[in-house]
Amino acid sequence: MACLRPLPLLWLLSLLPLLQSCPAPADAISSPATTPAPGTQPYGLDGTLQTKDILTLQYLSFPQSYTAIKDRFGFPAYRDSQADYYKLPNGNWAAIYYNSSGNAIAYSFSDSDGN
Q: Is this structure's pTM higher than 0.90?
């Protein structure tokens, strides 16, 4: 029985080359900002999402045109070349991201730290 104990360790060691070839999580996933950059000028009049808007955003099928987003949620509070930023009732932010064609392709919500 004593000679069987090293086998699990050898099996784990055989996986080491596979694990070393995986990219680090920070390298594998790009995390765009969910809050407007400092110094960004306000874009819209209101730019807030209510609870019903948040639920709608979560169930949207992407991609969506900019016009469809604007017609549904109104103008954002802030806008830059990659995203529209809407204020949430809890003080956090929702970001809707656009591709180079101007279509909305994804969204994210900031956490309580504003990230």
A: no
